[in-house]
Prior knowledge:
Largest interface: A-B, 35 and 40 residues
Helix content of chain B: under 10%
Number of strands of chain A: 12
Radius of gyration of chain B: 21 Å
Structural class of chain A: mainly beta
Largest sheet of chain B: 6 strands, antiparallel
Number of helices of chain B: 1
Order of helices and strands of chain B: HEEEEEEEEEEEEE
Shape of chain B: elongated
Distance between the termini of chain B: 18 Å
Number of strands of chain B: 13
Oligomer: heterodimer
Distance between the termini of chain A: 13 Å
Amino acid sequence: MTLPIPPTYMPNDQLLHGDLNSFNGLKGQQNALFNMPRAKLVFTGSGSNTSGVQPIAATFGAGLGATQYDHSFDGSALVDGSRRGFQIQIPGLYRVQARWSWVDSASAASGLRFLGLYKQFNVFTSAGANIGSPLVGAASAPDAFDWDIGRRVPNNPCTARIDITESFIRGTTLQLGVCQNSGVSLSWVAGIERCWFSIHMESGGG
Amino acid sequence: MPTGTPKTWASGDAITATLAAAELEAQWNAIYSPPRARLFDINVKTIATQTATTLYTTAGAGNLLDFEEAETATYTGTMLSGPAGAYDGLIAPIDGIYEVSAEFSWVPNIVGQRGAILKQGSTLIDIDLCIPSPNTELIVGPDSNIGDTTMHLSTEVKATAGTKFQVFGTQSSGGNLDTAGFYGSLEIAWIGNYVP
């Protein structure tokens, strides 16, 4: 899958309707402009991660996430079939955003809340499988591509945020991983305002 | 325009100047003029404790600037919601995926928590919560308002034409608390189509 390539017309070329309708023609180029690849997953189920220093767990297991949209000019899908994350079909510059929120309670007043973004090549890990090194200690970052430690606000969900723009090659898989060390198991907060993962293509290339 | 359907050329179609211009103009507009708008509030808004309140609604001359607005060739309406001088949000002009972001600041006060809420219609689409830093007196810089507590909201969502985006402030200082002037803004930007 690639972006349309503008045709090179020669003197005396006769334009045919098929040329204009083709993937590389005017219609194809407009479709690419209007329908750049983009997708969004929202955590709509229930789930939690256990306390303590632990391996990163894939957050979007089968049935956990709802696809808000998954759209591309060439019909390819970014969302993995089990809604574990995204796989780049068209190389280019992408903006990737994510939010993840944990509930708060007096018994979970300590520790950090970690959200990591992981990229691999052609590999989707199953829900619960390790996709990075364990969170060692309270503040060290495992080998995430990007990560954030959420700000705890007592009696309110604690949210970690990721927002990057980066070039990816075809076949790159992107997943989230979470970890917390409050001392107790913490639930995630479902909803489009609390836990989601989105990607959209800014431009081609790569 | 961005949501237009590219023409499917039929055999025998004459490639007239009119048709070619329309198709090329659509591409041009898609690249350079996708719908986008920004509200910019230059006024202070006083918000009662534990009462989520819509920002950008204080009436009065000059209290709100339509900072920028770009339109497509075929969209000529306004993305502003509410009467002039008391806009309360922005409206998605066409169906599509939108980047939505907002920010505003609270004046220095270390009691309680601060919240910012972004709504799409009645649906919450982003929330920012924080505890004000108690160390504002230690912060120095070129901006005299740097001790303010600034809230940030950003997300991308699908929206149908007419959907309203609004920002709410909420706080638990125990009394009224002002937002800081010159900082509040709300932006929407269309980034592409979506298939409903």
